[in-house]
Structure formats: C-alpha cells, structure tokens
Amino acid sequence: MHHPSDAAAWKHFTKVYPDFAKESRNVYLGLATDGFNPVGMSGEAHSVWPVIVTPYNLPPGMFMKRKYFFLSVLVPGPRHPKKSIDIYLPPLIEELESLWSGGVEAYDVSKKQNFTMRAALLWTINDFPAYGMMSGWMTHARKHSWFDCHKVFLPREHPYRRNVQAFRKGQTITDDPPPWLTGEKFLRERINNIKGVKKTVDCGGNGHEKPARTINGYGKDHNWVKKSIFWDLPYWENLLLRHNLDFMHVEKNFFDNLINTVLNVPGKTKENAKSRMDLPDLCRRSELHMKADGTLHVPIFWLSKEEKKNFCDATSPFAFKELLPKSVHIAISEIALFFRDISAKILKHEDVAILKENIAVKLCNLEKIFPPSFFDIMEHLAVHLADEAALGGPVQYIWMYPFERYIYHLKKKIKNKAHIGGSIVAQYVNEEISTASANFFGNPHVVPEVPLPGEVRFTYQYPDVPNLFYHEGQDVRGVYNPYMSSNDLQILKDKHFAEWVKNYVVQASNTYDFLMGMLDFVQGPQCKYKSWPIYHSCGYFFHTHSHGQDKKTQHYGIQVRGTTDTDYYGLSEEIIMIEYFGYVGLKAMVFKCKWFDTTEGRGIRKHKSGIIDVSPRWQYEKFDPFILSGNCDQVCFIPYPWVRHTSANDWWACTKFMPRGVRETSEDALVALQDDTDYQVVAQSMMLRIETYVVEDDSDYESTPVVPPNDKYVSEDELDEACTDRDSVSDSSS
Question: Cα-Cα-Cα-Cα dihedral of 490, 491, 496, 497, to 10°?
Fold first, then answer.
C-alpha cells in the first residue's frame, strides 16, 4: 500500500458508490482539527480550534503539504468547545452535502472543458480527546487500567489465554475479540436506540454537560454523549473508517509512559506505592508486593543511577540491551519495532496481518513485567493500529504530524491578540489570494532557475553521456584542491582493468564508433580533484568522518546495498569530485570510505528483529574504498552502553532513516528505521518467560514508605473542568 487508495476503506467506498468513483476528477477529502492556546502557556486560558480540510486524490509526493490544507472553520474561543464543537460545523456539513449531491461546476484545464465536480469526506484525523468530540463517544473519563485486556485478541489456542500466574490471577480468557461493527449498526442499532442521545444543534451548546443524568445507560452500557453531526452526511454510515486514531499521539504517549517508568521519574512514573497496594488482589507477583516494613522492592525494569547515565548516552531500544534483563529488553524492543514497522511508507498487506497478530502478544509480554497501573488507554490503543493501517493505508497519511505543523503556521499569523480569530482568518485569506494570483491568473512568468550558492550540477552539451556522470548536489563548506601526483593516482587504480579498457577502446576506435564520452573516460581522470567536508545529496547531509566525529549529530555513516544478501557499512573519509580530460568534460562525485568487515559473526551480526550490528574493530579485507555518491544511503551507528565489562566500541547498532521529501517506490521499499528483507519485513513475536525473583537493590534508591491512599471520587463535571483548556494546550504543544 503506497497510498490510501490502496487500502480497504477507499476500495470499499468506490465499490458502494461506483458512480462517484467512475469520475476520476471527483475529490476525496480528509478533515483534521486540534486546539491550541494562541497566547502561549504563560498567558490566560484561551482555546482556538481550526478545522482543516485536505484533498487525498493527489500523488503521494504532493499531498499532505501546506499548500493543500484549507482552513474551512475556525472556532475562535476563548472557551474550549468540548463536546459542543458541532455547533460550529453546520456550514461545513451543508457544503459537504451540496458537494456530494449536486457538486459544483469546475473547469478542467487539461481537457479544456467544464465538468461537475463532486466531493466526499472519507474520515477525520484527531488526537484522542478530539476523537471523542468529533465522534460523540466520550473519551474523557476516569482513568482505567487496561491490564489483562489484550488476551482476547490472541488466537483461541494461545497459551497466554490459560495463564493464571503471570496475568490476573485465577482468570482464563475464552472470549472472542470485540466484533467489528459497521456504520449502519452503530447508527441504527446503537445511537438511534439510546434514549437521551441527541444532536448538539437540537439540545444546544450546554446540552451534553451532564450525560449521566440525561442519557440512559451512560457509563455502564456505552459512552455515547451525542449523535455526531457527521451522521448527517448521506454516505457516512457506509464508511469503514470514520475517525482515525492518531498514530503520532499514541506513539508519543506510549513511550513517554515507558521511559518515565523505567527511569522512575518522580511524579510521572506509573509504578508507585498505590499501584503496589493493588497487586495482591490482581496478580501473583511477590517480587512487586509490599515488604513487611512498608517499603518497596526494586523491580527488574528500574535503572540505577549509573545505568541512567549510560542510557542518556545511547538510544532506545539499543540502550536497554545492556542495561536491563533480557526479558525486559526483548519486551520493550519488540514494541518499539512494532511502531517502527507500522510507520513504514509502504505497507504490505501480509505484513499488516503479521503486525495485527503480533501486537497482542507484545502487549501481553509487557503485562507480565509492568504493573497494572502502567496500562492506561494509550497502551491499549496500540492494539487497534494495525486494523486502522489495513483500512486507511500508510499511517503518514492519517496522522497529525503535518496538521500540527500547519497549526503552528497559523499560530504565527496572529498579529492582533485582541482579535485572534479575525487576525488568523485575515492572514490566511491574504495567503490564499497571493498563492492563487501567482499560479492561476494573468500570464505567469516562468522565472529562470538560479543556481544556489555552492550548487553542483553536471550538465553537458554533448548527448548520450552515461548517467553516472550526471549529478546534482550542493557543497556546504569551501572547496580545497590538494595535488595528487600521477604515481599516487596510479596506485589507487585497478591497473590491469583500466589499462586494458583504454588499450581496447583506442585500438577498436579505428574500426568501431564509440561515444565521445567513452573516449574521454578511458583516458583517465585529471591528477587533481576537488574535495568538501560536507555535501548535500539525495536528501542527506553527508559529512566526512574527520569533520563530524566530534559533533552531537552523526552524518558520516554509509551503507551500500550488495548484489547478494550482504550489505556494506562504513565511514565516509573524503568527498571528492573527479574531472576528466577531453571535449565532453566528464565529472563524477565519489565518496572515499572505510568499510567494516562483512563476515557474519565477526564483523556483522543480524538480530531476529532485523537490526544490524557492525564491529568497528574489523575492517573489510579488500581495497575498494570508492563509491558513487548517488549509490549509497546514510546510516547512523549507535554504540551500546559501556557496562558489564564490555567496551562500547565492540558493537555498533546500525539504523537507517529515510530523508524527508524522498518518496519510496515499490522497487526500493524501506521501513522507517531499518532495511527490510526481500520477503518479510515483520518478524514474528515471541512469548516471554519472566523469571520470578526479587532484584537486589544495588542502587542508592531510598526505600519508599507506604502512603495511605488518598483516592476520592471525582465527578465527571469536575473532570471536564480540569480537562478543558489544559488538554488542548498540552496536545497542541506535543
């Protein structure tokens, strides 16, 4: 799946409405909204909610860009709209209904004809609090523990379902996972049959404030607080995916909880005295129970102070390999790899099926280690991400990252804080007018492309020059021209092959016609070259190792894909531009690299998860240092922490990243951090056997005394007041 049109929800829609799908110029839309505080965190409470609409029937390299985001509604504040945001949406819904039923007359410039263009809204994209505001299903409620709620997603014969020791004691799971309900069942069998569930426009802006008093069965049988205004769209009940879980916030909050608990951050950790007091009633974990003197055992997932220092110098999940017990490291690294795999820019249907099967096992592995208080709603939502990827396609088209950046762009437009909404709209209209005027009106003048400072672009007047001599890049630092003698250059060449090619072409040119570029090429390069310490090419910033080794960021790691199953990893030592004699004036950009040994087990090792480790102590035996700059990818080498009497330079974990702005193709599909294999990206998840023992306290933690619980019931009205503006501010800042 390269695009949402390759996923199940889009295909289902085109199948249900073939007349709409028949016209390829009809528009498929997505809608996103989120709140932000325009006066900053230190100012007064003020909540502004932009509603953004964007088209989806564009190539993957074009849409999700700022120029295709349209500000359709602006809820000006200052109060948080909460569940009554539908009050502001009727104009948008009426326009969407008009675009669906009758359409609008538009002009096709390619065919030079008028046509009727229609549009349909496929889904909304929101963080979890806004998810409840848009869908009508309450997501702001008292915090619940989702511990032992994931075994229902396992296969019926899975041994975890019968495990009564590691999970909730004495309880086996035989239930099936919750059924997948269609929109028609939601609307006709659930929402329409619940007494008290009304539209916001019918009951008013304050009509949803006390749902427990006005809605039958609220909080017990269901969490519906309203009938969303989106049900007014005639096609809404036939959509498979109406509201998206935002991958960005789920991933962020999941790993915030994970890191805060492992590092035992005061006030943020999910492991405390209150959670220990609940354990004897829930599960058999004597190693986590209270001591007789009221203090706490140190759990196996806590780090000591020295280990915390080592962790700060490394990167998860690589740091945990040496700092935590093997079972804890495997559980954490597997969930990290799940988020890595599902965020690939190209998803395979078979891989998504494996991810769906694996995530329940991975969450159960975490349940065997962490206390029940760790598993809040964000940890639970991960179990549904694979289903949404199968329905909506690659997650980068249905997450909040681009919309959060656009909201920040809108925030910068505020020039008059006395009239915040008007200031944003006025600046937005000016921007749209200037963009439309420059692109669509008058006689646009094509400005000749001006070379950027330091731009390197090889062009030739002579035709049929091979592709390896065409290159576009940009040097970032000044150029210097060291002199290389003929003898030194000759030593760096493959003497026999180069001499043979030269003699062959010169002798054969008397009989055959060769390209002029070939005649120049076989004569060899000039005895001087140009070199840079920093070079920008193919979306990467490449540094030489000598220039970048002392910097905080790393840009000198190189990877080249081999013709076999072996890939080559190394460090860039020099960035060189070689020039050739002759009429054509050939030029080539090459990197001189130091390669690591490719012998598996000595110079390289491969984990089951797909992560590659390289040993910097072993070098590649053959002398082959040069590669073309366009034939390599950039990688980052992360040393493991120096603990347990091992050196940090024994092994480096190798991670690869895709530069922003570069779109993948089916021939070169990469996952977010690591190369995929030829057959399967996602590794099968394993069950964990957790040793039951008490970890000796070798750190200088202070014993935590028992604090009597101070739990008191918080009414929903009080909770709503506490979660108004503060939630929107924290979500937008994340």
Answer: -70
Write down the pLDDT at residue 673. Answer: 32
Chain-centroid distance, C-alpha 552: 23
Q: State phi, psi for 347 to the nearest 5 degrees.
A: -110, 135
**How far, rounded to the nearest angstrom, does the alpha carbon of residue 674 sit from its chain's CA centroid?**
13
Q: What's the half-sphere exposure (Cβ side, CA atoms, 13 Å) at 97? A: 12
Residue 569 DSSP code: E
| Secondary structure letter of residue 559 according to DSSP | E
How long a stretch of residues is the chain?
Answer: 734
Give the distance, in angstroms, between the CA of residue 201 and the centroid of all CA atoms in the same chain.
37
672, 338 Cβ separation under 8 angstroms: no
The three-state secondary structure class of 704 is coil
Calculated CA dihedral for residues 316, 322, 327, 329, nearest 10 degrees: 0
- Report strand pairing: 243-245 vs 119-126: parallel
Which has the closest alpha carbon to 284: 13, 695, 710, 690?
A: 690
**What average pLDDT does this structure show over 184-203?**
84
Residue 521 bridge partners (DSSP): none
Cβ atoms of residues 289 and 279 within 8 Å: yes
Q: What CA–CA distance (Å, rounded) separates 51 from 234?
A: 21
Helix (H, G, I), strand (E, B) or coil at 84: helix
Is 524 within 8 Å of 502 (Cβ atoms)? Answer: yes
Which of the pair, 168 or 732, is modelled with greater confidence? 168
Asked if residues 547 and 504 have their Cβ atoms less than 8 Å apart, the reply is no
Give the span between the Cα atoms of 588 and 576, in whole angstroms.
8
What does R_g of the chain's alpha carbons equal in angstroms? Answer: 30
Q: Is 11 helix (H, G, I), strand (E, B) or coil?
A: helix
Q: What angle do CA 160, 166, 169 make, to 5 degrees?
A: 100
Residue 461 above 90 pLDDT? no
Residue 212: per-residue pLDDT: 82
* Tokens read off for 551: 């910097």
CB 634 within 8 A of CB 654: no
327 to 25, 93, 149, 686: CA distances (angstroms):
53, 51, 21, 11
pLDDT of the residue at 50? 93
Long-range contacts of 187-194 (CB under 8 A, 24+ apart): 187/231, 187/237, 188/237, 190/222, 190/224, 191/136, 191/224, 191/227, 191/231, 192/227, 194/222, 194/224
d(CA 404, CA 34) in angstroms, rounded, equals 8
598 close to 619: Cβ distance less than 8 angstroms: no
CB atoms within 10 A of CB 658: 17
The predicted model scores a pTM of 0.74
CA 610 from centre of chain: 18
Q: Is the distance from CB of 335 to CB of 362 less than 8 angstroms? A: yes
DSSP 100: H
Rounded-to-integer distance, Cα 561 and Cα 568, Å:
6
Contacts of 484 (CB under 8 A, 6+ apart): 527, 528, 529
User: DSSP per residue over 71-101, as a string?
Assistant: EEEEE--SS--GGGGGGG-HHHHHHHHHHHH
Q: Name residue 593's beta-bridge partners.
A: 572
Q: Give 525's strand partners.
A: 580
Query: Which amino acid, 555?
Result: H
| Helix/strand/coil for 375 | coil
